[in-house]
């Protein structure tokens, strides 16, 4: 019921919806210096103000929670459904080709700009879904609230603040992932591995190594300096490893020693298989070079043996495992700093439902200890799972199937969303299966027809979940 009216509504308002998204994309909202009323900087606060201005102009009751989040209510009445979206974005580099990151452009049915897909476009689609329901005039006994956050990309402290003041609705979905429905978000572990060693005197020796800037990002570059080794000696090893791994190695002889740079492909730690880890590649190279035998080089080789290049399933570490519902464990070594007196590494593990402290963290600790390395005593964080046969998941899957004509299924992800700590929360859209939105990358874009269809599904979900 109402499906054709809802689809027609979104088609009729395509230009206005696009304009609202573009207005938000023009606000640069990556995290900045905190200020009064702007806990995450002026950019996120400006995006929040603009969003609430748009929502207020539609006649909705809005509330600003001290610059942390904004709330938009369809109506008064008991809470039934929360929709969680966010207005902050990741920083943008200068490698965009279609447009500048904060100067949106519509081309070939797609809107380009930072935040168009993650998550300003979906936030606007959800807002227009509420407007659609309002203008349909269907009486609903329960309320839907759209919550627009400003710190999703940097830890979700915005939601922590909000939930100190408000209770979650009985049901929640976040349009910040993929269709059909993501009902499982893996748990995991992010922890440091350290080692100390006496400075080596013999040559050749590695004097420095650096790679990685965030634990949840597979690094695309890595650099090391080796004293007492010439480029002619290292080149054959580089060539062999480049052929094996697909990485590119560059050598430069300097006063400090031979500088070796590795170039790979970055990726999100939730899907390390999508990248080519420059850190583990350069670590493998260091392990293969004819370094003098000393405590430091032995521990570097041990670290490389525990995290060999290309092993993102944790086989060498002894933690590989999988289950039918949530899939395999993944793990990637994403940060490493080495000096002449020690090393500090950090890995990101996304663990399935079957993983636990005993079969993951304790195994890692034992393997590290046996190699003379120390694992930080950090706890695993739990997975999130809403049963696939729950009313929320079944309703959303049914709507997806009716509106798209595709078969729906409940999915698992290694990524995390706003709903990770909510008992009855799932991710619902906005990206269609197989669509690459270039999220977090250059030329981020959203397919407008897909976004309008997502908005239509959100409107149907409001009618069915709040109408019971």
Features:
468 residues, alpha+beta, eight-stranded antiparallel β-sheet, six-stranded mixed β-sheet, 11 helices, 26 strands
Written account of the structure:
The mean pLDDT is 96. Helix 4 packs across helix 11 (448-466) and helix 10 crosses helix 11. With 468 residues, this protein is of the alpha+beta class. The strands form seven sheets. An eight-stranded antiparallel β-sheet has the order 14-15-13-11-19-20-10-21, covered by helices on one side. The chain contains eleven helices and 26 strands. The radius of gyration is 25 Å and the shape is elongated. The two termini are 14 Å apart.
Give the topology, please.
Layout: H1 3-12, H2 14-25, H3 42-57, E1 61-65, E2 69-73, E3 79-86, E4 105-107, E5 110-112, H4 120-136, E6 143-149, H5 157-165, E7 171-174, E8 177-178, E9 181-185, E10 187-196, E11 205-211, E12 217-218, E13 221-227, H6 231-245, E14 248-254, E15 257-263, E16 267-268, H7 278-288, H8 295-306, E17 322-323, E18 327-328, E19 330-338, E20 342-351, H9 357-370, E21 374-375, E22 384-385, H10 391-404, E23 410-413, E24 425-427, E25 430-431, E26 445-447, H11 448-466
Parallel strand pairs: 3-6, 3-7, 7-24, 8-25, 9-23
Antiparallel strand pairs: 1-2, 2-6, 4-5, 5-26, 9-22, 10-20, 10-21, 11-13, 11-19, 12-16, 13-15, 14-15, 17-18, 19-20
Helix pairs in contact: 1-4, 1-11, 2-3, 2-4, 4-11, 6-7, 7-8, 10-11
